[in-house]
Write a structure and sequence with these properties.
Transmembrane segments: 12-31
Organism: Aquipuribacter nitratireducens
Largest sheet: none
Order of helices and strands: HHH
Protein name: SHOCT domain-containing protein
Keywords: Membrane, Transmembrane, Transmembrane helix
Strand content: under 5%
Structural class: mainly alpha
Radius of gyration: 28 Å
Number of helices: 3
Length: 77
């Protein structure tokens, strides 16, 4: 086996592998940090969107929608 300045070729390959692992970890951390958080618990529509959709579909009257909207707006986030 040939040695270059006291370093084995296996160490160079191991260093490259370690570098790729570090790069993958840094990439994963950046993506996890800057990804937009999901809305609500399941990432689906929030309560206001559901309320608006029910009004648009005719499931609620304007008075019911107004009462429900006011109740949603008055709660503390």
């Amino acid at each position: 086996m040939m040695w270059w300045n006291g370093w084995s070729p296996w160490w160079m390959g191991g260093g490259m592998l370690l570098g790729l692992v570090v790069l993958a970890l840094v990439t994963w951390l950046l993506v996890a940090t800057f990804r937009s958080p999901p809305r609500g618990r399941g990432g689906g529509p929030d309560a206001r969107e559901l309320l608006d959709r029910r009004l648009a579909n005719g499931e609620l009257s304007v008075e019911e929608w107004t009462r429900a909207r006011d109740a949603l707006d008055s709660r503390t986030p």
